[in-house]
Design brief:
single chain, alpha/beta, 12 strands, about 20% strand
Amino acid sequence: MNRLDYIHRTHPRAKRLSVKIDQAGKVVVVTPRFTPGWLIKKFVTDNQEWIAAHQQKLSSSRSALLDTPSTLLLFGKKYQAHVRYLAQQAPGVYTQADQLVINPFDPKTNSLKDCSQQLTRFLKKSARRYIEPQSLQLAEKMSLNVSKIQFRAQKSRWGSCSHTGTLSFNWRLVHCPVEIINYVVIHELAHLVHFDHSRAFWTLVAQHDPAYQQNRGWLKKHGGVILSLQDSLIITNQNQQSAILTS
C-alpha cells in the first residue's frame, strides 16, 4: 500500500483525527472540517504500523475463508464464480458442483453492471428463501410472534428487531454457514423478549443455540470479509477469457 493511499472524510462533529480500516481493507481517515492536508498525511504516516497490522489481520481472515479471488461463499460452501453462456438454460445464476455460473442474457456480455446485478439478485433471493421460513420456524419453537421480516444491505449490522415485531436481516448473511445464520435469527428473536443484551437475554439465546458463543465469535472474526466479499470478487468470464470485478 502506498503510504498516502487513503480515503479522507470530514465529519461536522469530529474533534480529532481518526483512522480505521473498512470492510474492504481500505484506509479511511476521518477529520474535523478544514483540517490541513499536510496534517492528514502526517497522521497517516505516523499510524502506518497500526494500519499495516490491521490490514494483515483482515487479509489473514480472508485467506482463511477464501481459496482464490474468484471464491464466493454460499451458505458457507465455497464456489468458484464465473460467467458462462448456457444456451439450454434460462438466464440467471446456477450452482454446478463447486462452480457458481452466471448465465448472462447476452452471450457476448462483459458488463460489470449486468453480471453484478444478476449475482446480487440471486444472492438476495437465496437469503430470503432460507431465512424467512427458518425465522418463522424458530419463532414458533420459541413461542414468539413475528409481524414482518425484511432484508437490507447494512454496512455493519447483521440484523435488528423492532418493538413492533419486525425482524430485519442483512441479506449478506447468505454467505455464512447455516449455523451462523441461525444464531443471528435466534439473537434477533430473543430481542422480542429482552430488548437489551442483559444476562437474561443471553440465557434465552443459549437455550436455543448452545453454541452461540462460538457462532458469535466466528461472526466477529470473519464478518468483515463476509461484508466485503463482493467488493473484491473477481469473476472469470469463460466466454471471452477475461475477468470482471464486482462492485
